[in-house]
Design brief:
This is Selenoprotein O and cysteine-containing homologs. The protein is an all-alpha fold. The protein has helices at residues 3-10, 16-22, 26-29, 72-78.
Length: 79
């Protein structure tokens, strides 16, 4: 996709949900989940992964997140 087409495709994104839908997950789809993971997303124990590329986990929410900074060029690209 050309740079112009990429910029055009992200114009009008107003929410994080829209941004997530527009993201390209093709790399993630080409990786293999560790077959030894428990599959619940609560597999937070430290261990080596021998037979996969990643262990899917649910993120731990931050109690009181604060805004620190942003990338102006990225904001401009997103419109």
């Amino acid at each position: 996709m050309s740079e112009r087409a990429q910029k055009k495709s992200v114009k009008g994104i107003a929410t994080i949900e829209e941004f997530a839908k527009a993201a390209d997950y093709s790399l993630m789809m080409s990786l293999n989940r560790d077959p030894d993971s428990d599959g619940t997303g609560y597999d937070h124990k430290l261990r080596q992964v021998f037979t996969g590329h990643f262990v899917p986990v649910k993120p731990t929410p931050i109690a009181d997140p604060i805004y620190i900074t942003h990338s102006q060029p990225l904001f401009e690209e997103l419109g």
